[in-house]
Amino acid sequence: MIQTRWSWQKLLISAVILFGLLFGISFVSRAILFSGHSETAIYLRAVVRFTYAVIAGGIAYYGLGGNRLLKSVPPLNLFLKIMITVIGVLLILLLLVSGFPYRLLAMVHSNLFIANTLVALSAGVLEEFTCRGLLLSAFAQAFERNKYRYTWAAVVSGGCFGLLHLFNLLAGQALMTTLQQAIYAFVLGILFVAIRLTTNSLVWVMIIHFFIDWQPTISSEVMTGSGSPWGAFFIVWTPVLLIGLAFMIGFDKNVRWHSGLSFL
Fold first, then answer.
1. What was the pLDDT predicted at 168?
2. Exposed, middle or buried, 242 (CB in 10 Å: 0-12/13-18/19+)?
3. Total structural domains in the chain?
4. CA Rg value for the chain
5. Does a structural domain hold residue 218?
6. Which of 14, 69, 143, 193 is deepest in the core (most CB within 10 A)?
């Protein structure tokens, strides 16, 4: 049984409040307190966002009762070991396809290096503590009597993670870009849950999240580009989604097989 300091209802409400405050703080700091695109304004917004992320992460950590989700991780069978390896390879390929080596060079020479780093860190800390922390634990408790408990918790928390990216429309991001961002965020959310369950920690998903977001334009809070053709988009992301779901279903079956193990 998953035991946290707070009930699943309180965990859910806390996640909603923390995200609501994030959007409020981001709006106020961008539109009123530190408006404009000067380096000073961007740095001030980054500091405010990072400070809030640390505070929100601390609140989430307390409510969760720590960093771990499981008291002991059930030994992974051969299928799960293969699937989590595939997921790891997919995440590495995602970084390479997104031009991470070139982004790294661009970041080193960027005048906004610290601002971009703070914003990427804040995203990793806040979004993982809320989505893979508060929301995942809340839904895992809510679906306690369902035999696919963790699969549903991963899908619903991943769906929330995807929907949150729709707020980028308010920052002026293009509709097609935002929709595709929300969809692949949902898929990545499920992969992140797989990593979270396997490592029994939020640290690794925070690191992965940080490196995905760590780019020269992150402090502008708007994703550039016009998106990909929908056909190619679904050809790429549908198999990734199926791999994530296959792991989660297998994980639930493995948990039932090792039902003698207790869960935190």
1. 85
2. exposed
3. 1
4. 18
5. yes
6. 193
pLDDT of 84 > 70? The answer is yes
The dihedral of CA 91, 96, 97, 101: what is its sign?
Answer: positive
Judge contact between 52 and 25, C-beta under 8 A: yes
Using DSSP, state whether 200 is helix, strand or coil.
Answer: coil
In order of 35, 54, 116, 224, the CA distances from 43 in angstroms are: 11, 17, 9, 20
Per the structure, the complete domain to which residue 194 belongs is given by 8-257
Return d(Cα 244, Cα 250) in angstroms, integer: 10
Type of residue numbered 193: V
Looking at residue 74, its amino acid is P
Q: How far is it between the farthest Cα atoms of the chain?
A: 58
Q: pTM of the full predicted structure?
A: 0.94
The per-residue pLDDT for range 93-105, each reduced to its tens digit, is: 999 998 998 998 9
